Task: structure prediction
Amino acid sequence: MSKNIYYINRYNLQKRKEIRENTGYEQIVKYSSLFKPITGNELLAKIVLKVLKLKLPKNYLKITISEEIKALFIALLTGAPIFYLYADKDAFLLPLLKRKFGLKQVKLFGTLHWPIETSQKFSFYEKNLIFQFDGIITLSSSLTLLNHPNQITIPHGININYWQENDTLKFKNFYLIIGVSNRDHEKQIQLIKQIKYLDNTARFVVLIDNKVIYNLYEGLLDLEVIKTRISDAKLKELYVRCKAVILIQKYCLASNLVLECIATTTPIIANNVGDIAEYLGKRYPLFLSQDNQPNNLEKFIFDNENYRRKILEYLSGLRDTFNWPSIVNNTVKFINNS
Result:
């Protein structure tokens, strides 16, 4: 019989509902009734922090300390496993207590999202908590370097039913640039200029709510900046109507943007960095070359329908791999069978 799995999630699903109801790793908990939330309590968090006088790690949320205390008692009283959706940043007090007091009956599982090289100040790494976990989930294969004895790679998922769109041949001649985190904005701007040089009719839409970053793009020819967050519905409309998405990253394990492009079959011009090829496949035709020159760019710009159709068919063939139900099934099996 499968056990309930109590989870710690740094994102409030209710608060984020209007903006991110259909994207993000936290959506995983919607696809199985076995997932049970552990809710934070601000008063409890204040008391714990005052009594223990803890210095919180980088990016750790104060409210999470109360969730970890609750999780401790749930695990001790019920024997149910505790699942950190974002273990890199959120695992802190509970695994420390497990180690200090030898609480082997407390079963901890977690998913890792960020590259080891950029995460050393996150609690999971700073406190060397890996071996307090009974199982580790990675979103791509590069984190197998951790050498945990019970580790599995299960990819990030996407709500295919919501994002799926088969009418992306009726596009307009604009390119979409989204987001701030991990982006190489200088190289994205260079690519925008290159596309504009090749196709003087091309337009660009930049969706960024960070003033420092969107100021880098303002002033470029035929470019519109959307400076506020938009709903999933409006975002989907942009995906479906744009000619392509531009994404140049500094590193990559898993990307909501890449998954949304797969689900909507929106062509994405991207650099082959980190583990992005595990999601798009090594033979994806619109990867940038090693010197950041777009392979097949002119062909994509000028051979509109035929070449685009091939890319759409390629992306469509990837969809089922990232559909949440199968990913959730594998996640629940891994946790409950460990």
Q: What stands out?
A: The mean pLDDT is 92. The chain has two domains: 5-157+323-337, 161-320.
